[in-house]
């Protein structure tokens, strides 16, 4: 596989990473409502979930999954229900950004990390990304298709996490003053909850 092909893939991945999707909105929602640490944990959780999709693509599981309308619909509904569950939890919360004490804060960040992970794993659009995009940059005569598929997936995930970290730092810097006001912090958390509910409903009703 040529360097030119890899560069084209990097450019395509970057463009796709810049387009807002459920994962990005989940990450930005956490960042704006709860700060940089929460956003970074969400970003790394989402990135780990992307490697699950890459593994599924390499082993052929994604192709089997997408071929089954029942499995595809089931995952879509589970993902939608999970986002709605997170949203309702945020709407019922008191709106505190993050616990101050060490153990409580670590527990909260750990939870956000795994929420990001599940948000990505249960997103059928990510599976479509790996099945639809990666083969476009590979040749039918490729002597090492699995190796190059993995290389493209890792590159795409590196572009994704780099873009996510940039977004988190920018969003956290721009909204830091808002979070220091308890009333505004509570409002941000409620808004984040409404956003998650909206994302869940959108995922449940749209045709992918």
Describe the overall structure.
The protein has one domain. The protein is mostly helical and 208 residues long. It contains nine helices and no strands. Helix 2 (22-34) runs antiparallel to helix 6 (102-121). It is globular, with a radius of gyration of 18 Å. The protein is 83% helix and 0% strand. The longest helix is centred in the C-terminal third of the chain and has 35 residues, at 145-179. The model has no long low-confidence stretch (mean pLDDT 81). The protein has helices at 3-18, 22-34, 36-59, 61-67, 69-92, 102-121, 124-132, 145-179, 182-205. It starts with a helix and ends with a helix.
Q: What share of the residues does DSSP label as strand, in percent?
A: under 5%
The biggest beta sheet is recorded as: none
Low-confidence stretches: none
The SSE order reads HHHHHHHHH
Helix content: over 70%
Taking Cα atoms only, what radius of gyration do you get, to the nearest Å? 18 Å
Number of helices: 9
Large-scale geometry: globular
Quantity of strands, as a count: 0
- How many separate structural domains? 1
**Global structural class:** mainly alpha
Distance between the termini: 31 Å
Oligomer: single chain
Mean residue pLDDT? 81
Protein name: Lysine transporter LysE
Main location: membrane
Subcellular location: Cell membrane
Pfam family, one: LysE
Question: What descriptors fit this protein?
Answer:
about 210 residues, mainly alpha, 9 helices, about 0% strand, globular, LeuE-type, transmembrane
């Amino acid at each position: 596989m040529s360097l030119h092909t890899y560069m084209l893939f990097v450019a395509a991945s970057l463009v796709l990473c810049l387009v807002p999707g459920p994962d990005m909105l989940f990450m930005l929602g956490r960042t704006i409502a709860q700060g940089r640490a929460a956003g970074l944990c969400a970003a790394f959780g989402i990135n780990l979930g992307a490697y699950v999709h890459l593994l599924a693509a390499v082993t052929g599981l994604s192709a089997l999954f997408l071929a089954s309308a029942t499995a595809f619909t089931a995952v879509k509904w589970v993902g939608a229900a999970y986002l709605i569950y997170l949203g309702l939890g945020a709407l019922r919360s008191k709106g505190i950004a993050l616990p101050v004490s060490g153990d409580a804060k670590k527990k909260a960040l750990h939870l956000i990390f795994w929420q990001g992970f599940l948000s990505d794993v249960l997103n059928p659009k990510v599976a479509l990304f790996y099945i639809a995009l990666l083969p476009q940059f590979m040749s039918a005569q490729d002597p090492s298709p699995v190796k190059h598929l993995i290389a493209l997936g890792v590159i795409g995930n590196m572009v994704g996490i780099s873009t996510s970290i940039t977004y988190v730092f920018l969003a956290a810097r721009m909204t830091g003053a808002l979070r220091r006001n308890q009333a505004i912090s509570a409002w941000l958390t409620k808004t984040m909850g409404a956003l998650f509910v909206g994302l869940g409903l959108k995922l449940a009703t749209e045709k992918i």
